[in-house]
């Protein structure tokens, strides 16, 4: 049974006893009941005071955090902004027209191809650094030329770089020579 239910029963019993016994006994029982209420109310008051203190401390902590954040914002806004400057991209441009080498082949005026990679086989250039997170992935740095061996699905290639083979995301590379279909 709940405390409130017990109180009601106690109060009813007190009234009945008070009616039967008379004024002197009834007054004492009423005083006991009031004492019990005072004790519960004082405990409730202590709980409310403890909660009030807790929330005051929470407000102080939030105010301190706000001051720190505002200070960081002031520091950041007082420093000059660094503008984003993209890294220059290497390009392989083959001129059209009569530009030929003495041996009759087209002259190459773009960035020379890295040694060890033949441009007559499927390959791609890394646009960004890729750090492998899972076993079987191939890590590379921006600008690396990767030999393509297979397209796993619409999001992943398989390739070779520096004697290592592995998978890497398609959106990290630019295709130079496509895989045969």
Automatic annotation (TrEMBL):
GO terms for molecular function: lipid binding. One of its GO terms (cellular component) is membrane. It comes from the Eukaryota. InterPro entries: AH/BAR_dom_sf, BAR_dom, Endophilin_A_SH3, Endophilin_SH3RF, SH3-like_dom_sf, SH3_domain. One of its GO terms (biological process) is endocytosis. Residues 97-112 have a biased composition (Polar residues). Residues 1-30, 74-118 are annotated as: Disordered. Keywords: Coiled coil, Endocytosis, Endosome, Lipid-binding, Membrane, SH3 domain. Pfam families: BAR (PF03114), SH3_2 (PF07653). Residues 74-86 have a biased composition (Basic and acidic residues). It is found in: Early endosome; Membrane. This is cDNA FLJ53715, highly similar to SH3-containing GRB2-like protein 2. It comes from Homo sapiens (Human).
């Amino acid at each position: 049974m709940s405390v409130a239910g017990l109180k009601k029963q106690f109060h009813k019993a007190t009234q009945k006893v008070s009616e039967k016994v008379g004024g002197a006994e009834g007054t004492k029982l009423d005083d006991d009941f009031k004492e019990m209420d005072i004790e519960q109310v004082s405990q409730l008051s202590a709980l409310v005071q403890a909660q009030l203190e807790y929330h005051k401390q929470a407000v102080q902590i939030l105010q301190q955090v706000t001051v720190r954040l505002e200070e960081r914002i002031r520091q950041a806004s007082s420093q000059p902004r660094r503008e984003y400057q993209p890294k220059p991209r290497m390009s392989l441009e083959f001129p059209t027209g009569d530009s030929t080498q003495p041996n009759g082949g087209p002259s190459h005026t773009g960035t020379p191809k890295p040694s060890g990679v033949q441009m007559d086989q499927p390959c791609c250039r890394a646009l960004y650094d890729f750090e492998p997170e899972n076993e079987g992935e191939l890590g590379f740095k921006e600008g690396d030329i990767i030999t393509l061996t297979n397209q796993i699905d619409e999001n992943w290639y398989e390739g070779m770089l520096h004697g290592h083979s592995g998978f890497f995301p398609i959106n990290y590379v630019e295709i130079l020579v496509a895989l045969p279909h």
